[in-house]
Specification:
It comes from Capsicum annuum (Capsicum pepper). InterPro entries: NA-bd_OB-fold (IPR012340), Rep_factor-A_C (IPR013955). This is Replication factor A C-terminal domain-containing protein. By secondary structure, the protein is of the alpha+beta class. It has a single domain, classed as Nucleic acid-binding proteins (OB fold (Dihydrolipoamide Acetyltransferase, E2P), Beta Barrel), CATH 2.40.50. The chain is built from three helices and nine strands; from the N terminus they run E-E-E-E-E-E-E-H-H-H-E-E. Strands 1, 2, 3, 6, 7, 8 and 9 form a seven-stranded antiparallel beta sheet that branches. It has a two-stranded antiparallel ribbon with strand order 4-5. The two termini are about 20 Å apart. The structure holds zinc ion. Zinc ion binds next to loops.
Length: about 160
């Protein structure tokens, strides 16, 4: 597993299929491929349990050399929306509303981030491709060189 930094912009993928959450067994963190929270007998740890949502989505990162896709997981993703995974699930699956992406997308457009990425090979994936995961993400400066405000976005605070 490799870790490295890039500096660039982040934007959400324009992907209708993106659900922004996944469901997992809270005991063993095994991902279960379903969209609805329900009780399961986990095939991995054999426990009977209730599925738990986890924030999971992909973003596009753009820097001087081009753009690439990376995955945001868990708390890091939740911080992007200032929402818990449970709320994201609620909006998408119960209320059937789109996530309020618009303002976040606009927020992101003017910012440059220092992004720590982790290269990880997915065992379960069909296409054995390396996947990039964002392990931390710190706002570096506004792309427009506006005076930086220290109160914006405390994402990645724990990575110091
Ligand atoms: Zn399990």
């Amino acid at each position: 597993m490799q870790s490295f930094y890039v500096e660039g912009k982040i934007s959400f993928l324009d992907d209708e299929e993106q659900t922004f959450y996944e469901l997992m067994c809270p005991k063993c963190k095994n991902i279960v491929r379903t969209k609805i929270i329900k009780g399961i007998d986990c095939g991995n740890c054999q426990k009977h349990t209730m599925l738990t949502p986890r924030c999971h989505f992909q973003v596009q990162m753009t820097d001087g050399s081009g753009s690439t896709t990376a995955t945001l997981l868990g708390e890091l993703g939740e911080n992007f929306f200032s929402m818990r995974a449970e709320q994201i699930y609620d909006i998408i699956n119960i209320k059937k509303d789109p996530l309020p992406l618009q303002c976040t997308q606009q927020d992101l457009a003017n910012k440059v981030f220092k992004i720590q990425l982790r290269n990880s090979y997915c065992r379960n994936s069909d296409d054995a491709l390396a996947k990039l995961f964002v392990s931390s993400c710190v706002k570096k400066h506004d792309a427009l060189q506006l005076p930086t405000s220290l109160v914006s976005l405390d994402v990645g605070e724990s990575s110091k």
